[in-house]
Amino acid sequence: MLAAERETAAPDKAVLGVECSFSGKRWRPRLGDDRAAMAMAQRLGVPDIVARVLAARGVTAETAGSFLNPTLRAALPDPSHLLDMDAAALRLANAVQAGEHIAVFGDYDVDGATSSALLLRFLAAAGAKATAYIPDRRREGYGPNAPALTRLRDEGASVVVTVDCGTLAHEALAHAGAIGLDVIVIDHHEAEERLPAAVAVVNPNRLDESGAHRQLAAVGVAFLLAVAVNRILRATGRYGAKPDPDLLSLLDLVALGTVCDVVPLTGLNRAFAAQGLKVMAARGNTGLAALADVARLARPPSAFDAGFLLGPRINAGGRVGKSDLGVRLLTTADADEARAIAAVLDELNAERRRIEAEVLAAAEAAADAQGDSPVVLVAGEGWHVGVIGIVASRLKERFGRPACVIGLEDGAGKGSARSIPGIDIGAAVIAARQKGLLINGGGHAMAAGLTVERGKIEPLRDFLGRRIAQASASLALGPSLGVDGALTPEAATRDLAIALEQVGPYGSGNSEPRFVFPNIRLSYIEAAGEHLRCTLEGRAGRLRGIAFRAANSPLGAALLAAGGATVHVAGRIARDDWRGREGVQLFIDDAAPCAAP
Question: Facing residues of 447 across strands?
């Protein structure tokens, strides 16, 4: 069973009998092969609970070595295995050699920004002339469009590389061909049988692909393109006595885009993330270093930091500010410019959070009125299109089912959908477009975007509901929380936290281990801004805990009311190095009464 499938498995018995926690979730065990866990504990010398965590993620004694120590040397494939890669690399290498003007046309999210920045930095190191174009989310929408391509041609571009977009842009790319532009598509979104007219369409999710690397983010595909182009340029003597461009130095961008696009951190993606986070820690990218500073990130970054501290700030530019700020930040070598852009992105992120809170409140109210539909689909007049994807993620987490949020304006709606493991929302949206229910739409398994006429929202809801109901027949829909095991406070040691770090980086497809602490007393609890801090006491030990952004939530209210009482608590343990403390703390995800309802 794959890790993604394990996340949706529906065991008969809830952990500690918790069917409805303080936050309304069912606690389900993440189950692994006990024999495999025992074999790994003996062979690797890791604690039993770490071995159980590995087994629950489908790791065996035979694969544990490569899982715990992912390397690019072992995981990186020959880029030529992807269809059209050789044609793409040859055309781009020829453009570099001939001094042609190359335009990189990206998306406005983190995957698009990192993909664009990666190619720009590589091409600059190779001595090429390259510029970026990031469309305005509200004015232009997603993907290449005819006016923008015409503008790039008029500014001297002869080759356009689309990154994180382009697979379904038939009309725009036909226009590009008509005006003399050569287009290379570098994408990962789900495709149809008919591909757009282009020099090359490199996409591991093409229907005629092998599927070996279909879980790559666009930035991973862009890195493989850089490897392929660099191989050609090296063979033709482009660099002479000079050193080749340092491709490994670009892995920080690959890690950031991979983590933030929520693709499974398994296989090649796991190697990208693990090695890229090491590069990120070296602070060689001036823009990323400035962003870490403005986010007050002083420690070596983790996947959590990339996904929840750095990524949202880059996203804020495309969501509520200027769409090219992320690319500009990630490509500048000027420390003063980087600090200035990072400060703007930090301010925009605060504005994004304010707008998100307003839209989320309205979307949750609309979702609550829908009942138990297989898909949560809500629409609202004037909902900011820059936050609907985040709101869809929040609804997916709360309701435990696919969610789609649509912002209405001028008779049409722009929507973002997010899914759960086991349900391919990108394929569902493409099917809806093929049925004539959408003006436009596409995506990948876990996320999709769409444009719909106001009058077709209800038919769209019915169509997606029927399709998702069929796909989810064997899944356990509804809000739930995966649990890896039970601990006592004295067992939650710093050594265990360090051992569990080896199982990271954590993210989609490799969830961070979560443990329950049964019958534990909240001996101290107080609000700290929007967070809650507490002390958990067992029979023979104490543990510091924090519940982030929980003060005004149902979970927070229940915890505050339970101060001094005994409850079940679920969360993730981590090292606590604040001010040289060298301790361990619990990041609280949920709690439940001891007498489960």
Answer: 418
Distances (CA, A) of 215 to 1, 180, 211, 409: 17, 33, 8, 33
Whole-angstrom distance, CA of residue 362 vs CA of residue 381: 10
What domain count does the chain have?
A: 3
pLDDT tens, position by position, 458-480: 999 999 999 999 988 877 778 99
Query: Domain of 493?
Result: 3-56+484-593
Does pLDDT of 597 surpass 50?
Answer: no
Whether 188 and 313 map to the same domain: the answer is yes
540 lies in the same domain as 419: no
Assign 3-class secondary structure to 293-338: HHCCCCCCCCHHHHHHHHHHHHHHHHHHCCCCHHHHHHHCCCHHHH
Asked if residues 153 and 258 have their Cβ atoms less than 8 Å apart, the reply is no
For 89-146, what is each residue's pLDDT tens digit? 999 999 999 999 999 999 989 999 999 999 999 999 999 999 999 998 878 888 999 9
**46 and 85 belong to one structural domain:** no
Domain boundary (311, 346, 381) is at 346
* Distance in angstroms (rounded) separating the CA atoms of residues 520 and 581: 23
Residue 142 and residue 179 share a domain: yes
* Pairing status of strand 157-163 against strand 376-381: unpaired
DSSP state of 19: S
Residue 318 has pLDDT above 90, yes or no: no
Query: Pairing state of beta strands 447-453 and 480-483?
Result: unpaired
What pLDDT is recorded for position 449? 93
- Determine the pLDDT at residue 1: 30
Output the pLDDT for position 421: 86
Residues 310 and 336 occupy one common structural domain: yes
How far apart CA 85 and CA 87 sit, in angstroms, is 5
Residues contacting residue 45 through CB under 8 Å, at least 6 positions apart: none
Q: Give the number of other Cβ atoms within 10 Å of residue 455's Cβ.
A: 9
Contact 394, 312 (CB under 8 A): no
Could you write out the three-class secondary structure of 478-535? CCEEEECEECCHHHCCHHHHHHHHCCCCCECCECCCCEEEEEEEEEEEEEECCEEEEE
How many CB atoms sit inside 10 A of residue 361's CB?
Answer: 11
Report pLDDT digits (tens) over 528-584.
998 999 999 988 889 999 999 898 899 999 999 998 899 999 999 999 877 677 789
